[in-house]
Design goal:
Blueprint lengths: L2 H5 L12 H11 L27 E6 L2 E2 L23 E4 L6 E2 L21 H9 L5 E2 L2 E4 L6 H18 L4 E5 L3 H16 L4 E5 L2 H7 L3 E4 L14 H17 L5 E4 L22 H26 L1
Parallel strand pairs: 1-5, 1-6, 1-7, 7-8, 8-9, 9-10
Antiparallel strand pairs: 2-4, 3-6
Helix pairs in contact: 4-5
Length: about 300
């Protein structure tokens, strides 16, 4: 930066939200895959205003996290990408008890976060606390897990109707959605649109701003954090509480569709972490070849798992 930019306190031009759509496109092309993925994109966005105060509403939590199964390989702190831990059907869980749900099955930022605190991707305890404090009227009796599916058609035609059916069974009047990886952000963007079209207001907590805005969603509360931390910083209850509160305020006050509110929190004093995720400029040809081989094996494992679960 020039001296005058330094004197004026400007941030670096690189200190901006990560362009995940561009990064993932370039990454898969570098791995040798053709036919770049087309991300969901809509010009029109549904929007359902709150019909009453949030303190009187039944609110659901929606997640892309996967229930822990010790038979499915490594899924703990620092675990590598694990396709065997994926799930392909909507599932639900009782919000009155604790659940061990993890994110080893999706492509989060493994270099800059360690998956050590599930409150950063599954804010069920914080949602319980919000209900106890009457910040929300009540927590819906079940949370719902939605599979991360690259097929937009399957998400829209199979998973979205099932999520809506379960939400209606539970008397849901608003929903908080927390995605993790890039495709997770697209999946829950499609769910958000579907629920809003059915009259259920939503707020999406996001780390991949470009994906959700490209898809077109009613309300986004964006945290400029590494993927896997949409609900706040790990081991930082104050950050997590502030993130959820800002999400509630966005849900309450958004004036129209395509409202994005950015959290004022910063991940760290340096923006260097933003250069790591799926950045082909930082990976050698030899490493790309190794990653291509790993990815092919993971795709085959996921294909077999999907066929078995959907059989």
């Amino acid at each position: 930066m020039s001296q005058i930019e330094t004197d004026l306190g400007f941030a670096s031009d690189e200190d901006v939200p990560i362009p995940y759509m561009t990064r993932t496109r370039d990454w898969y092309l570098a791995l040798g895959y053709g036919n770049p993925y087309r991300w969901a994109h809509y010009a029109e966005v549904p929007f359902t205003p709150l019909a009453k105060p949030l303190a009187e509403m039944t609110v659901a939590l929606l997640t892309t996290a996967s229930p822990y199964d010790p038979s499915k390989g490594e899924q703990g702190v620092g675990a590598p990408y694990n396709a065997e831990a994926k799930f392909y059907k909507v599932y639900s869980g009782d919000v009155t008890i604790d659940h061990d749900v993890r994110i080893s099955h999706v492509a989060i930022d493994r270099k800059n976060t360690t998956m050590e605190d599930s409150n950063t991707w599954f804010p069920l305890p914080a949602m319980r606390a919000a209900a106890a404090a009457r910040r929300i009227g009540r927590l819906a009796p079940r949370f719902h897990g939605i599979p991360t599916n690259r097929s937009q058609r399957h998400t829209i035609e199979v998973d979205c109707p099932e999520v809506l059916r379960r939400c209606k069974e539970d008397g849901v009047e608003a929903a908080v959605l927390v995605p993790n990886c890039p495709v997770c952000h697209q999946t829950l963007s499609l769910v958000s649109r579907y629920l809003e079209s059915a009259g259920i207001p939503t707020i999406l907590l996001a780390c991949a701003k470009d994906i959700v805005e490209h898809c077109g969603v009613p309300r986004v509360m964006f945290s400029d954090f590494p993927l896997g931390n949409a609900a706040g910083k790990p081991n930082d209850p104050a950050s997590q509480a502030a993130t959820l509160e800002l999400a509630f305020r966005t849900l309450e006050t958004a004036p129209a569709a395509r409202t994005t509110v950015q959290s004022p929190q910063r991940w760290s004093s340096s923006h260097a972490w933003k250069q790591d995720y799926s950045n082909v400029a930082r990976v050698s040809a030899e490493e790309l070849a190794r990653l291509r081989s790993e990815n092919d094996r993971a795709k085959e494992a996921a294909k077999a798992l999907r066929a078995n679960q959907l059989a």
